[in-house]
Amino acid sequence: MAGTALRRRLTWQVAKVSAVTVETASVRTLTLDVPDWPGHQAGQHLDIRLTDEDGYVAERSYSIASAPGEPVAITVERLDDGEVSPYLTDELRTGDDLELRGPIGGYFVWEPENGGPLLLLAGGSGIVPLRSILRHRERTGSTVPVRLLYSSRTLNDVIYRAELDQPPSGVEVIHTLTRSQPPGWSGYARRADAALLAEVAWPAAAMPLAYVCGPTSFVEAVSQALVQSGYPPERVKTERFGATGGT
Amino acid sequence: MEAVDGNAIGGLLQEVFGIEMTDAASVCESCGADRQVAELAVYLRAPGTVVRCRSCDSVLMVFVKIHDLTCVDLLGLAALG
């Protein structure tokens, strides 16, 4: 893996929020000014640490939403019973400080030389690291063909909707809405299962590389279906984040 | 409680081992399953952080933080790194 950045000691540092973007009713993107950022790879994450007045500390991991070379950004979904996310989505303002460390992870990452074709599968806020990969592909001029299947509850829950509505050349975006669909919806309206993947996934013979990110149930269903359809397990990279986000 | 992936403790592992560990190889002492750390099952809300084998569910690693000290139990692993 990319040597120097990984051997460096991982230390906590204070970043400043430079922008807050509303993505959906419960999702915000925080753009961060990180003074000592060594650069990251598409698909990596960072840890956020909140310390309250009596010293209680809560740490959470968040995928990095921006491409390498872009300002660091995370996209956070508010979990009503969460210890960290409600503060990040509801309280934090531009100019506020935030303690973080990163980048972290060397497994769920993509570089142009890893090739493709790429199959990106997102459940809910699992779209976040995949968006970093999409932007990295675009910024590096990669022509690797991409199919993105993105499962959301409703159209209003789709994160980065405007960006995904204008995909760059070579990127196909396929939505499925599992809970309700707007009138005239022509996309899919069911869970991502073996039958849906048989329609949208690259055939295994094309030697695709798959990245699956979402709630545990989504990741398990999708990754098992891919392996059963002939994808080698080592070509299916997974990232589960527990039963938190909506698909 | 649902498990997340080894990815989720990339920061903790880097703190303990000093290097990026999520793409390191691991071998389960119990069943011999050979997996990258990122693919192991992690329970964040156990007493401490518990990492289990995805094949046989054996406990591979346990990390408990007491103030700034992290106690590490790797006895469930036959090999790491």
Could you characterize what this model shows?
The complex is a heterodimer of chains A (247) and B (81). Chain A has 247 residues and is of the alpha/beta class. Chain A folds into two domains: 102 residues, Elongation Factor Tu (Ef-tu), domain 3 (Beta Barrel), CATH 2.40.30; 129 residues, Nucleotide-binding domain of ferredoxin-NADP reductase (FNR) module (Rossmann fold). Helices cover 20% and strands 32% of the residues of chain A. Chain A contains six helices and eleven strands. In chain A, strands 4-3-6-1-2-5 form a six-stranded antiparallel beta sheet. Chain B has 81 residues and is mostly beta strands. Chain B has one domain. Chain B has a five-stranded antiparallel beta sheet, with no helix packed on it. In chain B, strands 3-2-8 form a three-stranded antiparallel beta sheet, with no helix packed on it. In chain B, a hairpin with a 5-residue loop joins strand 4 and strand 5. Chain B is globular, with a radius of gyration of 11 Å. Chain B starts with a strand and ends with a strand. The chains are: A alpha/beta (247), B mainly beta (81). Chains A and B meet through strand 3, strand 6 and strand 11 of A and strand 1 and helix 1 of B.
> Spans of chain A of 5+ residues with little confidence (pLDDT < 50)?
1-5
Oligomer: heterodimer
Helix content of chain B: under 10%
Spatial strand order of the main sheet of chain B: 1-4-5-6-7
Number of helices of chain A: 6
Number of strands of chain B: 8
Query: In percent, how much strand structure appears in the residues of chain A?
Result: 25-35%
Order of helices and strands of chain A: HEEEEEHEEHEHEHEHE
Corresponding CATH architecture of the largest domain in chain A: 3-Layer(aba) Sandwich
Q: Give the SSE string of chain B.
A: EHEEEEEEE
Give a summary of the structure in a few sentences.
By secondary structure, chain A is an alpha/beta fold. Chain A has six helices and eleven strands.
